[in-house]
Write a structure and sequence with these properties.
The protein is of the alpha/beta class and 241 residues long. It has ten helices and eight strands. It has an eight-stranded parallel β-barrel with strand order 1-2-3-4-5-6-7-8, surrounded by five helices. Helix 2 packs parallel to helix 10 and helix 6 runs parallel beside helix 7.
Length: 241
């Protein structure tokens, strides 16, 4: 089970998650990227996006045909569900106040998820201001927490864990101009015991090294690899060293 593996992540363990947005890959590009991921030493493939104009199913099938790495859904909405995946982050956007993203979409998808073989992983999703309006902010109709409000960020993270969530995803938004501050990551990590995923605005190997050292258990990268697939190997090396 995916969650059993994730729950065994030790504080010093460092894992690399490659986020695939199907909207930004054709089939050939997707196959090439997954093969690069296999060689680079990526630990997890995450699949999803804020806005999709096509089904997620074909991308999930292609990924599973070309790798044995765990495939975890990172759904932007309740339509992004595929039985070909191994697990799904059941995301609650607890930094916002949109009821659909706190519980509404979960209710609509509940019966399908319950009947599926997917490993369901309840996950707190906290969006931090990243210097520009992210797709997540716009589509979710929520405001990110201001980056300087560390106490609010930490309290929100604690609330997520106390609510029973099994993982925490902290990000500044896909394609953010600013990645998360190391101090913020350290403070959040100090106050939670569940695995911490960090993403958003990570463009260079040095960014990966910084957030990893600050306490991220899983570093998730998407846009930077879309723009330059050759960075994948360098980024994984920066994490694993």
């Amino acid at each position: 089970m995916i969650y059993q593996e994730l729950s065994r992540i030790k504080p010093d363990d460092k894992k690399f998650g490659l986020l695939i947005d199907p909207e930004n890959y054709n089939n050939d590009q997707l196959v090439k990227t997954i093969k690069k991921a296999n060689k680079a030493g990526v630990d997890y493939i995450f699949l999803g996006g804020s806005l999709l104009s096509k089904s997620i199913e074909p991308s999930a099938k292609i990924i599973k045909e070309n790798t044995t790495l765990p495939l975890i859904l990172f759904p932007g909405n309740l339509m992004q569900i595929s039985e070909d995946a191994d697990g799904i982050l059941l995301l609650s956007l607890i930094s916002g106040r949109n009821p659909d993203l706190l519980i509404g979409n979960h209710i609509l998808a509940a019966k399908r998820l319950k009947a599926s073989k997917l490993d369901i992983i309840p996950t707190s999703y906290i969006l931090i201001e990243g210097g520009n309006t992210s797709a997540v902010e716009y589509i979710s109709n929520t405001k990110p927490i201001p980056a300087e409000q560390t106490d609010i960020i930490v309290s929100t993270a604690i609330a997520g864990e106390l609510s029973g969530h099994k993982m925490l995803y902290l990000e500044s938004g896909s394609g953010a101009s600013n990645s998360l501050d190391s101090k913020t990551i350290k403070e959040v990590k100090k106050h939670i015991s569940i695995p911490l995923i960090v993403g958003g605005g990570l463009k260079e190997p040095s960014d990966i090294n910084r957030v990893s050292n600050a306490g991220a258990n899983i570093v998730m990268v998407g846009n930077a690899i879309e723009e330059n697939p050759d960075k994948l190997n360098l980024m994984v090396k920066a994490l694993k060293k």
